Amino acid sequence: VTTRAANQERSYVMVKPDGVQRGLVGKIISRFERKGFYLKGLKMFNCPEDIAKEHYKDLSSKPFFPDLVEYICSGPVICMIWEGKGVVKSARKLIGATNPLESEPGTIRGDFAVEVGRNVIHGSDSDENGEREIGIWFSSGEGTAEWTPHMEPWL
Ligand code: RTP
């Protein structure tokens, strides 16, 4: 297991098919950029069933699992790697609670969604899952490029 520096923490974030079809991709990317995270991977992808099942394997016994897999494979998704200090937990805050009716206004789901089965976006729930999911969705080198943000020292 590779240990990453604190400011190189990574989260796998994905705009789900409803978010793509509703034209929310730019608004979502904008929220992560304005917070101060760095986009380190990006691709549009038609998800095959086996990848959706692997990604959500912890939910495979849930009654909604077949509908969830069908939803994620119903149209293109936007796969992203976001990097930065505390990004995993912070992304979950930017995204909001799983059920959009419980998500606070100002969060992505709170502002843009109503149905739990159409909740626009995914974000990793732990560092370990972030790295696991990046490995599932991005093959080596694909959709990524090495770059270092230009950081001015604080005044
Ligand atoms: P995600 O993994 O997509 O970021 O969502 P999450 O952690 O907030 O929620 P999780 O419990 O992991 O559920 C994964 C996704 O399954 C769908 N879901 N449907 N019909 C239902 O009752 C139900 N419950 C969950 C949602 O799309 C949720 O994001």
UniProtKB/TrEMBL annotation:
Transmembrane segments: none
Residue numbers binding ATP: K16, F64, R92, T98, R109, N119
Annotated EC: 2.7.4.6
Catalysed reactions listed for this entry: a 2'-deoxyribonucleoside 5'-diphosphate + ATP = a 2'-deoxyribonucleoside 5'-triphosphate + ADP; a ribonucleoside 5'-diphosphate + ATP = a ribonucleoside 5'-triphosphate + ADP
Molecular function terms, GO-annotated: nucleoside diphosphate kinase activity
Active-site residue numbers: H122 (pros-phosphohistidine intermediate)
Cofactor: Mg(2+)
UniProt KW Kinase keyword: yes
EC class name: transferase
UniProt keyword list: Kinase, Transferase
Listed GO biological process terms: CTP biosynthetic process; GTP biosynthetic process; UTP biosynthetic process
Domain Nucleoside diphosphate kinase-like: 8-145
Transferase as UniProt keyword: yes
UniProt similarity note: Belongs to the NDK family.
Name by which UniProt lists this protein: nucleoside-diphosphate kinase
Native species: Pycnococcus provasolii
Shown residues within the full chain: 28 to 182 of 189
